[in-house]
Sequence to fold (80 residues):
Amino acid sequence: MRWNYRLLDRSHKNGGEPWLEIVEVYYDEHNKLIGFSEPCLNAENKEEVISTLQMIIKDISKENVLNVSDFGMTIQQDTQ
Fold:
């Protein structure tokens, strides 16, 4: 399994107004999307925060914005 940071459109959780979240996205061995995390950023120290932010910028800069439907979910399932 591998993962990276991606942008996920969750406008449906914001009354239809634009809302993007940075999430960790997980892939299976065939590179198929299998899940995502809730948005978060935590670290043990300032240097680790900076390193994680740099990785986030690198990852989200090169990929398209995802939708919950890319994970086989409906908006209704994501709001439960």
Notes: The two ends are 26 Å apart (CA to CA).
